[in-house]
């Protein structure tokens, strides 16, 4: 294979030395591609060049011949570095392909349909800052009748593929635990034991879990170190925090989580979010909470999904259309009674 390459190189070089026609140099581009395809190192091309010149000029000065020794030694080092570069580039392409496959699998595995046929209107926007998201949300029909709806949002502290695996663990553990006992404090307690036994010591998971009870029009919730949710009371046109405290999942197996509750009237709205929402960055720093609530209020008359989409687009624009962290916003609005 290299003999054919050498013959082509000789032909191009001899033609150029005889005619000095720049059109001949365009053939070098094709030859370069052949050299790369055949993994011919730069130092071998120099030897081919020197050999061709010696045939062309039998009386080539000795100093010209010796100069090739310096060039050859230089290109040996360059060639080794170039081959290492090619190897790394090949590995990067393979890794990128694997990450893209993992991203596709994650989207398929973690896809969650919004509940329908209830007195609640749901909306959600979930966007990854990188290829793999560290956020996971879920909606659970706990009794099969849509009388009790579980809502979960978790955020893995740690990104990439390890975070994706941790999310998968939560996804498959959550339904069984929640259907066994709907109490949010119990659900978090059991998930905490699962996480403590299965995730790396340098990772942990924050989580907000709540249950809407249709019969009582009541929202019960608990938090494992997750971002504080927001409640909008339509009657008074006021916002309040869905205050809850607790250690993130996976730190201490014996942690207890406290349950809170909130009565939900028609047109009241619940906002559950990851820190990608609350830590929106602008030129002047992080967005303050009053500013965030003002944005929520701006779109309060919209349907839940329209509201979630509008808030996301507004916050994304504030950040010059670049997310700094995974962004998940869940909007739950009790429908107006007819």
Automatic annotation (TrEMBL):
Keywords: Hydrolase
Protein name in the entry: Phosphoserine phosphatase
Keyword match Hydrolase: yes
UniProt entry tagged with the keyword Phosphoprotein: no
Gene3D superfamilies: KaiA/RbsU domain, PPM-type phosphatase domain
Organism this protein belongs to: Listeria kieliensis
Chain ranges of the PPM-type phosphatase domain: 117-334
Highest taxon of source: Bacteria
Pfam families linked: RsbU_N (PF08673), SpoIIE (PF07228)
Example GO molecular function: phosphatase activity
Listed InterPro entries: Bact_Sigma-Reg (IPR052016), KaiA/RbsU_helical_domain_sf (IPR017944), PPM-type-like_dom_sf (IPR036457), PPM-type_phosphatase-like_dom (IPR001932), PSer_Pase_RsbU_N (IPR014787)
């Amino acid at each position: 294979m290299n003999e054919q390459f050498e013959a082509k190189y000789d032909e191009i070089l001899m033609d150029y030395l005889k005619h000095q026609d720049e059109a001949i140099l365009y053939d070098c581009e094709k030859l370069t591609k052949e050299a790369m395809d055949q993994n011919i190192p730069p130092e071998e091309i120099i030897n081919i060049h020197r050999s061709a010149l010696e045939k062309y000029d039998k009386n080539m000065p000795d100093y010209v011949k010796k100069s090739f020794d310096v060039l050859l030694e230089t290109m040996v080092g360059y060639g080794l570095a170039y081959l290492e570069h090619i190897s790394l580039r090949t590995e990067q392409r393979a890794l990128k392909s694997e990450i893209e496959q993992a991203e596709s699998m994650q989207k398929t595995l973690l896809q969650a349909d919004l509940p329908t046929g209830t007195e609640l209107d749901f909306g959600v926007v979930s966007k990854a800052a990188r290829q793999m998201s560290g956020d996971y949300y879920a909606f659970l029909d706990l009794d099969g009748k849509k009388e009790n709806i579980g809502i979960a949002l978790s955020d893995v502290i740690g990104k990439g593929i390890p975070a994706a695996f941790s999310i998968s663990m939560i996804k498959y553990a959550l339904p069984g635990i929640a259907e066994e006992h709907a109490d949010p404090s119990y659900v978090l307690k059991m998930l905490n034991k699962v996480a403590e036994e299965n995730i790396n010591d340098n990772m942990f998971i924050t989580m907000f879990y709540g249950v809407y009870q249709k019969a009582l029009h009541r929202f019960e919730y608990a938090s494992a170190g997750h971002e504080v949710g927001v409640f909008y009371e339509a009657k008074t046109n006021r916002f309040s925090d869905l205050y809850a405290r607790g250690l993130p999942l996976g730190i201490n197996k014996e942690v207890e989580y406290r349950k809170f509750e909130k009565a939900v009237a028609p047109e009241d709205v619940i906002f559950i979010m990851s820190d990608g929402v609350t830590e929106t960055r602008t030129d002047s720093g992080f967005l303050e909470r009053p500013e965030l609530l003002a944005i929520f209020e701006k779109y309060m008359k919209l349907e839940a999904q329209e509201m979630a989409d509008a808030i996301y687009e507004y916050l994304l624009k504030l950040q010059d259309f670049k997310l700094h962290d995974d962004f998940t916003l869940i909007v739950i609005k009790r429908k107006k009674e007819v």
